[in-house]
Design goal:
Length: 117
């Protein structure tokens, strides 16, 4: 009877461990493959503020009919060219910190990236 209980609880423990490590792996793969997406739509960056990890990719995609740009305040990261409809621009998040950016065609369009370690 004792042996039976012990075997049962060991099997239960193994099951918990494997499901935890599987979900951790899936999370890592998700970050590397997708990164963060920012949609440009109706003359706004959406989401307007994002938080990413250093090393993560950030991609903007323009879903307006107007060209837009992504320009860092203080030139802290590479600026985009004018993005046409459905065109994308990707950077890799660098050192931790807060990065403000705007569209040089429409300077009232602004966004913020917070990079964490
Ligand atoms: Cu714009």
């Amino acid at each position: 009877m004792t042996t039976l209980i012990r075997r049962f609880s060991l099997a239960g423990l193994a099951c918990v461990i494997s499901s935890v490590s599987l979900s951790a792996l899936a999370g890592d793969a998700g970050n590397k493959n997708l990164g963060a997406k920012i949609e440009i739509k109706d003359f706004a960056f959406n989401p307007q503020k994002i938080t990413v990890k250093s090393g993560e990719k950030i991609t903007w995609i323009n879903h307006d009919e107007e060209p837009h740009t992504v320009v860092s305040v203080g030139k802290k990261f590479q600026k985009s060219s004018a993005l046409d409809t459905d065109q994308e621009f990707t950077i890799t998040a660098g050192a931790p910190g807060t990065y403000e950016y705007f569209c040089s065609v429409h300077p009232k369009m602004t966004g913020t990236i917070v990079v964490e370690k």
